[in-house]
Design brief:
The structure is a single chain. The protein is α+β, with helices and mostly antiparallel strands and 82 residues long. The chain has one domain. Helices cover 38% and strands 18% of the residues. The protein contains two helices and five strands, in the order H-E-E-E-E-E-H. The strands form two sheets. Strands 1-4-5 form a three-stranded antiparallel β-sheet, with no helix packed on it. A two-stranded antiparallel ribbon has the order 2-3.
Length: 82
C-alpha cells in the first residue's frame, strides 16, 4: 500500500509540474515577413554582378551574403573551424 501511495503522489506531482511549465513556456508568436528580392541589382564599379545566393529582404533591409561580396571584390574567402 505504501508503494502505491508514493507512486500516486509522484504521478500527481509530476502532472502538476508539467502543466505549470507548459503554461509559462509558450511565448506569444510573432509574424515574420521576409522574401527573396529579385528586383535588387548589385553593381561593382558600375557593372551589374550576379551572386551565387539569393538576396533577402527582411524588415525593409536587404541582406547579401558576405562571402559573395568578398569574392566579388577579389578577396580570398575561407572558413576555419578553430
Amino acid at each position: 500500500m505504501k508503494k502505491l501511495t508514493i507512486g500516486a503522489a509522484s504521478f500527481i506531482a509530476g502532472a502538476l509540474l508539467m502543466t505549470g511549465i507548459s503554461g509559462y513556456a509558450a511565448p506569444a508568436l510573432e509574424k515574420v515577413s521576409a522574401y527573396i528580392n529579385n528586383t535588387v541589382t548589385l553593381k561593382l564599379n558600375g557593372e551589374k554582378v550576379e551572386t551565387s545566393q539569393p538576396i533577402l529582404t527582411y524588415n525593409d533591409r536587404t541582406y547579401v551574403y558576405l562571402k559573395d561580396v568578398g569574392e566579388l571584390v577579389g578577396a580570398e574567402v575561407g572558413w576555419s573551424g578553430s
